[in-house]
């Protein structure tokens, strides 16, 4: 396997809070077997695809390189919300037409509805909370921009600083925008519920089964340390944890970036009142390099931001200091509160600025769904399901056609991470 970051980026998720909230899942290691569809990656995308395919009668095997929930599906902030593209609707309309941009808007809502329907149907307990999300203006100029943005969201509500105070959303912001779409959840509990649904549908799930070689010889062959899976079709559902050479087509078509998260000890009612944050809302600020945060059901507080340019220990130490500094600036009343959990995960960017979901060109029987730009809870789930629908001939008409357009490669190949340094510097200047 050939990956972009240092080995530390793919190490065990030892610091992640979510793993302490749900029992570990036990899946067998892959051995020699044949199946209809093999899925590489057992996160939200892979498991949603497995559920849909297995319910349609396909023999499905899902392979994860590490333990269940090890990747981004067990490391994210648990925001099930609109998003999935790095570029705005106006850019998509200019590139692909107004109809396709409108279809993308509908897809974002459909993605949230898809997760909501799964939770309702299964009755899964995932610590759900938050009615939509709240965007918080970090400057007066940013609040003016939120006024214009409010027109883009049905039912959106502008919030003055006094409104924020009344609704228990701190006092350090210059206003906000409530978008009544989406909700928060415990991603590890959601992942466990998906895994159980996939098993119930008849799929086979494998852990500690990294695919070390992928090639086609009549059937697709997926070599793992303990055996080879042979399949008629294969789905790449590895997102930011993809290997550059599985297959070689994937080289430089994604750009993984690190996101870092901290979680505090449970806060007392007095501490919450001191910061005037008593709301159950998930929130993020208006910076280009945004912060995202929410109070968890047990009164812990989650706070996330962009991660380091490398995964080396010295860089991770610097980011650890950076995230604590930003947390203290946003919530000065909690500057001495203990941080009990801290971790990083990989977000997947595409050169197009939007996801890819479709057939891999010139690779018969190979499909992929990748690139959710930090919104994989909803979009990764829905596109996994949508890709499976395409494969069984039941394509969802709500999916925009541009999602299946093969993604371009980033410039600089193996050195493309260097694109992040000037981008981060520019964004930090813009955020002042």
Automatic annotation (TrEMBL):
Transcription as a keyword of this entry, yes or no, is no
Q: Which keywords does the record carry?
A: Oxidoreductase
Q: Does the keyword Oxidoreductase apply?
A: yes
* Gene Ontology CC annotation, any one: cytoplasm
What GO MF annotations does this protein's record show? oxidoreductase activity
Q: Which InterPro entries match?
A: FAD-dep_OxRdtase (IPR006076), FAD/NAD-bd_sf (IPR036188)
This protein is called Glycine/D-amino acid oxidase-like deaminating enzyme
FAD dependent oxidoreductase domain location: 36-389
């Amino acid at each position: 396997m050939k990956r972009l970051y240092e080995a530390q980026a793919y190490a065990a998720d030892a610091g992640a809070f979510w793993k302490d909230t749900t029992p570990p899942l036990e899946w067998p290691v892959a051995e020699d077997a044949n199946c209809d569809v093999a899925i590489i990656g057992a996160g939200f995308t892979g498991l949603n695809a497995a559920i849909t395919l297995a319910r349609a009668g396909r023999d499905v095997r899902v392979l994860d390189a590490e333990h269940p929930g090890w990747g981004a599906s067990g490391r994210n902030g648990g925001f099930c919300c609109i998003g999935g593209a790095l570029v705005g609707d106006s850019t998509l309309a200019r590139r692909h037409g107004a109809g396709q941009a409108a279809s993308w808007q509908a897809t974002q809502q459909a993605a949230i509805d898809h997760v909501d329907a799964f939770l309702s149907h299964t009755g899964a307990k995932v610590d759900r909370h938050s009615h939509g999300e709240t965007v918080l203006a970090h400057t007066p100029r940013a609040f003016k921009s939120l006024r214009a943005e409010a027109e883009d969201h049905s039912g959106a509500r502008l919030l003055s600083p006094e409104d924020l105070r009344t609704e228990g959303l701190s006092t350090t912001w210059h206003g906000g925008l409530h978008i009544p779409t989406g909700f928060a959840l415990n991603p590890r509990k959601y992942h466990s519920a998906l895994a159980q649904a996939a098993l119930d549908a008849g799929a086979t799930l494998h852990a500690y089964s990294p695919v070390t070689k992928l090639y086609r010889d009549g059937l697709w062959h997926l070599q793992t340390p303990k055996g080879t899976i042979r399949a008629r079709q294969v789905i790449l559902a590895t997102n930011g944890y993809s290997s550059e050479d599985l297959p070689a087509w994937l080289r430089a078509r994604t750009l993984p970036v690190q996101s870092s998260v901290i979680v505090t000890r449970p806060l007392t009612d007095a501490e919450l009142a001191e910061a005037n944050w008593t709301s159950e809302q998930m929130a993020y600020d208006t910076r280009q390099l945004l912060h995202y945060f929410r109070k968890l059901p047990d009164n812990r507080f989650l706070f996330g931001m962009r991660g380091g340019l490398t995964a080396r220990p010295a860089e991770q130490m610097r980011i650890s200091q950076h995230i604590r500094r930003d947390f203290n600036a946003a919530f000065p009343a909690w500057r001495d509160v203990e941080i009990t959990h801290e971790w990083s995960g990989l977000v997947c960017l595409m050169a197009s600025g939007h996801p890819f979901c479709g057939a891999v060109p010139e690779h018969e029987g190979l499909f992929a769904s990748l690139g959710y730009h930090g919104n994989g809870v909803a979009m990764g789930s829905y596109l996994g399901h949508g890709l499976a629908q395409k494969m069984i001939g039941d394509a969802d008409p709500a999916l925009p056609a541009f999602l299946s357009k093969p993604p371009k490669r980033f410039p600089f190949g193996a050195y493309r991470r260097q694109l992040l340094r000037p981008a981060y510097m520019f964004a930090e200047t813009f955020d002042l």
